[in-house]
Write a structure and sequence with these properties.
elongated, membrane, transmembrane helix, transmembrane
Length: about 90
């Protein structure tokens, strides 16, 4: 009986840390660094366009600066997740 349990444990994927499990709702079950960065970039462009075209000059510049700061933080978070091995790096 213990042999069957050992075989199951050997074939199972290693457990991910709690932090990586908690962000799975953002990236999906099979995360990919490229799709994460693409979404961050597209959302950044959309927010910048909306702020630049709809708000008056001083407010639009402030909001655009805030969007760029959030985008940089998101890109750094993506790089950290890639370093810790969260994103799928396997081939097709």
């Amino acid at each position: 009986m213990s042999d069957a349990v050992e075989e199951e444990e050997a074939g199972a994927e290693p457990e991910q840390p709690a932090f990586l499990k908690s962000i799975e709702f953002l990236t999906g079950e099979d995360p990919n660094a490229g799709s994460f960065l693409l979404v961050v970039g597209v959302v950044t462009c959309v927010f910048i366009a909306v702020f630049q075209f709809t708000l008056p000059k001083p407010i639009s510049l402030l909001m655009t600066a805030l969007v760029v700061v959030v985008a940089i933080i998101s890109f750094m978070m993506g790089a950290i997740l890639d370093i810790v091995g969260y994103f799928d790096t396997g081939g097709v």
